[in-house]
Amino acid sequence: MSHKDTMNQDNTARIELERIRSTPQTPRSRMAIPVQEMPTQDAEVRRANMSEVATGYTPEQAMVEAERCLQCRNAPCVGGCPVRVDIPGFIAKAREGDFAGAAAVIKQTNLLPSICGRVCPQEKQCQLPCTVGKALGSVEKGVQIGRLERFVADWERSSGSLAAPRAAAPTGKRVAIVGAGPAGLTCAVDVRRQGHEVVVFEAFHKAGGVMVYGIPEFRLPKALVASEAEVVESMGVDFEMNYLVGRTRRLSSLLGEDGFDAAFIGTGAGLPKFMDIPGENLVGVFSANEYLTRTNLMKAYRRGEAATPLYPSRRVAVLGGGNVAMDSARMALRLGAEEVHILYRRTREEMPARAEEIAHAMEEGVVFDFLRSPARVMGDQNGRVIALEVTAFELGEPDTSGRRSPVAIRSSETVVPYDTVIVAVGNESNPLISRTTPELKVDRRGHILVDEKQKTSIDRVYAGGDIVLGAATVILAMGEGRRAAAAINEVLQ
Q1: Taking CA 182 as the corner, what is the angle to CA 180 and CA 187, rounded to the nearest 5 degrees?
Q2: pLDDT per residue rounded down to tens, the chain (493 residues)
Q3: CA 409/CA 414 separation, integer angstroms
Q4: Domain with CATH 3.50.50.60 in the chain
Q5: Which whole-number Å values give the CA distances from 390 to 372, 376, 411, 441, in the listed order?
Q6: Which residues have a Cβ under 8 Å from the Cβ of 162 and sit 6 or more positions away?
């Protein structure tokens, strides 16, 4: 979207707001207010930079979008939010232009609104049950809750009014948080609020977990994640970076001689899956986890400055259909690839990625090869990728998830040239903690088993996020962190 288009959009919102404010509104008239589209960089421009794709609402757009909310008494949107933000409450404040008040309402239950507003799948959570969307027959036409949350959070930061929650008087109790991802940070805040001493142990050199190593800069600026971590630290939470629990120190030692009264495990699901097809060990095959970590956390795109190399790619194949596949494909374009294909063995309708991310990838020139999947990776005499043998599929009957199962078409194999392959078919739990803590019960996939309060099989040890759920979302991880914190606070009272 050009600067001129953005200005036109802003002028339209200003005129619409004046019209709304001059006329008494009814539920019917509110549903006639058009959805405020998110301003974005032009696709041709953004595919060549790392700057954020979506540029955010203006105050006028935010107030117009807030006017669309019907303030339903039963608030179905709140039921769709894993951390139960008072959505009608913050939107009511935003409607009146009280953005500071709106931020205060959100942060009663969500300390990471600038992040959630950007990366949460609102169309599958809070926005899915929105009354406006249901009445208009499309979840995309519901109130744009995530966009409003992002605007409010960004306004709070840019206005200089960002403040940390207050911690209660010291209790003398100590809690160890393993992992500085969304689950760990959320748990740390809620435990610290009650006056307990909190130490976060993080394996990487930066806090944020998947928010810094997995989600690209163009979707989630790392300065925002750093700012949120600084807010947590300003509450008095201590961070021990480059600290790998299970190797640097065992969990049992933290709870034993180190004197912690409770612990929370939020180590995520960072162990990449592969497809187990021939040729996956060739040079030029990457897990999406490694590919994105090199570029997001280690800034490989800063040629000549980064401490990690950037693999040169011309034709890239990304295997998978989730958000990580979209991130990998869009990153490959920004790193200079001439052509990027996403191979997915179902159709667009079955893709688990967010509709917005798929649309953005298509706008930027990513090619989608639906109903296609590789049978093997082919290499040259030097062990480098040169092609994929690709099989065509058709959809059969639905599987246990309700999606139609892909069925390979016999004798449909073709050889397609590629020099880089990125495998984005999911992640599993890192087994380090479970292997060094044998009394910690896990399922066959390595997910830690917990009860309804996030308690593990070990007394005073809780867990949440992807290490429990498998690869999920930021907001679901935060929800588990909050539940675990409530249980820890109850036990330590």
Answers
A1: 80
A2: 555 556 667 788 999 999 999 999 999 999 999 999 999 999 999 999 999 999 999 999 999 999 999 999 999 999 999 999 999 999 999 999 999 999 999 999 998 999 999 999 999 999 999 999 999 999 999 999 999 999 999 999 999 888 888 999 999 999 999 999 999 999 999 999 999 999 999 999 999 999 999 999 999 999 999 999 999 999 999 999 999 999 999 999 999 999 999 999 999 988 899 999 999 999 999 999 999 999 999 998 888 888 888 899 999 999 999 999 999 999 999 999 999 999 999 999 999 999 999 999 999 999 999 999 999 999 999 999 999 999 999 999 888 878 788 999 999 999 999 999 999 999 888 889 999 999 999 999 899 999 999 999 999 999 999 999 988 889 999 999 999 999 999 999 8
A3: 12
A4: 174-270+429-492, 273-426
A5: 6, 7, 11, 40
A6: 156, 227, 231
Q: Does domain 174-270+429-492 have CATH number 3.40.50.720?
A: no
Torsion of CA 134, 138, 141, 146, to 10 degrees: 90
> Which residues make Cβ contacts (< 8 Å) with residue 477, sequence separation at least 6?
181, 182, 183, 186, 266, 268, 464, 465, 466, 469
CA distance 180 to 44: 35
d(CA 456, CA 460): 8
CATH of span 273-426? 3.50.50.60
Start-end of CATH 1.10.1060.10 domains in the chain:
3-158
Task: Provide the CA 325 distance to its chain's centre, in angstroms.
Answer: 13
Block residue for tokens 């130490």: 199
Helix ranges (H only) for 270-424 are 288-296, 323-334, 355-364
The phi, psi pair for 281, rounded to 5°, reads -95, 5
* 455 DSSP β-pair partners: 462
Q: CA-to-CA distance for 389 and 58, rounded, in angstroms?
A: 48
CATH classification code of 3-158? 1.10.1060.10
Give dist(CA 372, CA 413) in Å, integer: 10
The phi and psi torsions of 60 (rounded to 5 degrees) equal: -65, -40
Strand-pair category, 262-265 with 174-178: parallel
